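$ run holo --ligand "2-phosphoglycolic acid" --emit tokens
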Amino acid sequence: MNKKIFAANWKMYLNSNESKDFMLQINSSRDFFSEFNIMIFPSHISFEAIQVLAKDLPNIRVGMQDCDILTSGAVTGSNSITSIKADSCLVGHSERRTIFKENDDIIKKKLNNCLEHIESAVLCIGESLDEKEDNQTFEIIKKQLSILPTDLKGKELIVAYEPVWAIGTGLVASKEYIEDVLSYINNLIKDLYSNENDSNIKLFYGGSVDENSVKELSTIPLLDGFLIGSASADFKKFENILNKMR
Ligand code: PGA
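-- output --
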């Protein structure tokens, strides 16, 4: 099996029928897809159906796109991490940070919530274009990572480096640029988690990953996987990405 992890962040692209169709197509090409380590983050409304359709596919984990800071209560429209048995959950995605005005305090609560109740969490971090042009990338990364707990309690932490200027823009960060930032992240994390099992801590890249960029980026030694948005919500495009990695 290919060692890299391919995480599909379906965002709000697919309705529940389209999400099910996608999974049915995976099921019909099961031999091909079983070669890859996959995570799927469907919309909450499709979650259970996707989980059922993935149940005979042990190489596919199904995660939530977001969770509340609380596990239950009067929070209209929100979803608790305990509402469903998720394999993982995204927190701190730049769309949550900007559209929903989530600050590091909120993201910290969500991350701790995930690490307490489920086995894995994906913390998304990354600088905006202004911050990049202002040479603040490392400072921003350091600040966004300052919310990490000191103890992971044996849970999996995936840090997804997603420069905001690369998300949904078609602009993929260069291999050298990603290597620089990942090695900075890696140093910070290594310091913090010197006692943790290395295999529980993973680094992803996300931002306009597609079939044209995936192969070259996959040669980055520190990279454990990809968080893929729009190209992951189109069955053909997702299949093409994986095909490049065979
Ligand atoms: P994109 O999104 O691949 O559409 O740029 C990535 C993400 O937001 O996780």
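-- notes --
The pocket of 2-phosphoglycolic acid is lined by residues 9, 162, 167-168, 206-209, 227-231 (CB under 6 Å).
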